[in-house]
Design goal:
This protein is mainly alpha-helical. It has 16 helices and no strands. 81% of the residues lie in helices and 0% in strands.
Length: 448
C-alpha cells in the first residue's frame, strides 16, 4: 500500500477529527472577519455600514472563488498528487495556484472597477452610500489578488493534510485587522470619506500580514513541496481551471439563490425580510462547520485516490458526508424546537424575532440535507466528480426561482418557507442519489 501520504492507511475517525477541528476553527475565523468589520463600523453610522454592505457580496464572491471553488480544486489536485507520491505534480499544483491567484485576482479587480459602480447604484439610491462604496472598493480591490493568494496557498496546505497552519493564517488576518481597526477606524463624527479610507486600508493590511505568514509556511525547509514558478505545467493548469470554473459556477448560483430568496421575502415587507435574514445567518454559521469537515474530506479522499484506492476513497467519502450531515442535522433540529435560542440572541424587535422563529421552525429541519449536498460537493473535489453537485445547486436555484412568477404578498408566507425547504431537500437527495448510482457506484479499485 502506498504510504507516500500519511493520510493513507491512518485511522479514519481519529484522522478526520485531527483535521476537522482546526479546519472548522479556521473557517470560523475567516467568517468572523466580516462580523468584526461590521462591529467597528457600527459606531460610524448607518452610511458607513451600508457602504461596506453594498461591497460585501463582492468580497464574499472573491472568498467563494478563491477558497471554495478554485481553492477546492487546488486542494483536490494536491491531495491526489501527494497520495500518488508525485512531488513534481504537487509542485506543479502549487505553482499553478500562485498563477491562478494572481490572474483571478487581477480579473476580479478589473471587473469591479468596470461594473462595481453599476451594482452600488442598483443596491442603494443614496448618493452618500454609493460614493462611500465606490471609495471603499477602489482601495480594497487592488489588494484582492493578495486575498486570492492567501486563500489559494491555504487551500494547498489543506490539500497536504495540514489544517493547523491555514487556521493560524486566518487567525493572523482577524487579529491584525482587529488591532489596526481599533486605531485606524474613527468614531462617530468623522466624515464618511475618512471612515471608508481607514476601513479599507485596515482590511488591506490584514491581507498582507496573513500573506506573509502563508508564504513563510510554504517556504519552510521542512515543507515537502517547494514553490518553483518553473514547475507550472499546462497539463496541470488546464484541468485545475476546468474543475475550478465548474465549482465557481456553483458559487455564482449560490449568490443568485440568496438574491432570489431575498426578493421573494421582500414581498412581505421589511419585517419579514429582516426576520428571514436573521434565520439565514444561522445557516451561514453552519457553512464553516461543513467546510471544516469537507476540507478534511478533500485531503483524505484525494490522498486515497492518488494512491490508487478509489473504492476506499468513496467509502471514506460516504462516512465523512454522513457524519457531517448528522452533526449539522442535529443542530438544525435543536433550533427547530427552540428557535428563540438564536432569534432572541440576534433580534431586538419582537415582530422580527417572531418571523425569525417561524422561519427556523420550517427551514432548520432541512439542515441535514443541506450538509449532505454540500458534503458531497467537497468530497467530489477530492474525487473529481463535481458535475452532479453543481447540477444539484442548479436544481435548487430553479425550484426557488419559480416563486418569482407566482409568489405575491397574498401568498401565505409559510408556502414560501416550504418552497425553500423543499428545494434544500431536493438538493441533498438529488446529489446523493446521482453520485451513489453514477460516478460513486461500486467499481473495482484503480491501479490495484
Amino acid at each position: 500500500m502506498n504510504q507516500s501520504s500519511p493520510l493513507v492507511g491512518a485511522p479514519l475517525f481519529a484522522t478526520m477529527l485531527r483535521l476537522a477541528v482546526p479546519g472548522v476553527i479556521g473557517a470560523l475565523l475567516f467568517s468572523a472577519l466580516g462580523l468584526a468589520e461590521a462591529g467597528f463600523l457600527k459606531s460610524a453610522g448607518a452610511d458607513a455600514l451600508a457602504s461596506v454592505a453594498v461591497v460585501f457580496p463582492l468580497v464574499i464572491l472573491a472568498a467563494m472563488f478563491s477558497a471554495g471553488a478554485m481553492g477546492g480544486a487546488i486542494s483536490g489536485f494536491t491531495a491526489r498528487a501527494i497520495g500518488a507520491g508525485d512531488q513534481e505534480q504537487a509542485a506543479a499544483v502549487l505553482a499553478c495556484a500562485v498563477v491562478i491567484s494572481v490572474l483571478g485576482g487581477l480579473l476580479m479587480w478589473a471587473l469591479v472597477v468596470l461594473f462595481g459602480p453599476l451594482l452600488y447604484r442598483y443596491a442603494s439610491d443614496s448618493t452618500e452610500v454609493v460614493n462611500g462604496a465606490t471609495l471603499y472598493a477602489s482601495l480594497l480591490f487592488p489588494a484582492i489578488p493578495v486575498y486570492w493568494l492567501v486563500n489559494m496557498l491555504c487551500s494547498f496546505l489543506r490539500g497536504t493534510g495540514d489544517m493547523v497552519r491555514p487556521a493560524l493564517v486566518a487567525g493572523v488576518m482577524l487579529l491584525s485587522y482587529t488591532v489596526l481597526a481599533m486605531f485606524m477606524i474613527p468614531d462617530a463624527g468623522a466624515s464618511l470619506t475618512q471612515t471608508m479610507k481607514s476601513a479599507a486600508l485596515a482590511m488591506v493590511a490584514s491581507y498582507f500580514f496573513s500573506l506573509l505568514l502563508a508564504i513563510y509556511f510554504i517556504g519552510q525547509q521542512r515543507q515537502p513541496v517547494r514553490f518553483r514558478l518553473a514547475a507550472v505545467r499546462l497539463s496541470t493548469l488546464i484541468p485545475i481551471l476546468k474543475q475550478g470554473l465548474l465549482a465557481s459556477s456553483q458559487s455564482v448560483m449560490t449568490v443568485t439563490y440568496a438574491m432570489v430568496t431575498t426578493l421573494l421575502f421582500s414581498r412581505y415587507g421589511t419585517d419579514w425580510l429582516a426576520g428571514y435574514g436573521l434565520a439565514v445567518r444561522l445557516e451561514l454559521i453552519m457553512v464553516p462547520v461543513i467546510f471544516g469537515i469537507g476540507a478534511s474530506l478533500i485531503a483524505i479522499v484525494g490522498a486515497y485516490v492518488g494512491a490508487g484506492q478509489r473504492e476506499k476513497a468513496i467509502s471514506i467519502a460516504w462516512q465523512g458526508i454522513l457524519i457531517n450531515a448528522a452533526i449539522v442535522g442535529i443542530v438544525g433540529l435543536l433550533f427547530a424546537v427552540f428557535p428563540s435560542i438564536w432569534c432572541g440572541l440576534v433580534g431586538s424587535d419582537d415582530v422580527v424575532t417572531g418571523y425569525c422563529s417561524q422561519s427556523l421552525q420550517i427551514i432548520t429541519p432541512t439542515y441535514a440535507f443541506f450538509a449532505l449536498g454540500l458534503g458531497c460537493y467537497f468530497a467530489s473535489q477530492g474525487l473529481n466528480t463535481l458535475k452532479f453537485p453543481v447540477l444539484g445547486a442548479l436544481l435548487r436555484l430553479c425550484i426557488v426561482a419559480t416563486g418569482i412568477f407566482w409568489v405575491s404578498a397574498a401568498t401565505p408566507v409559510n408556502v414560501v418557507l416550504l418552497l425553500v425547504a423543499f428545494a434544500v431537500v431536493v438538493y441533498g437527495v438529488f446529489i446523493t442519489l446521482a453520485l451513489k448510482f453514477g460516478p460513486w457506484r461500486d467499481i473495482p479499485p484503480v491501479n490495484k
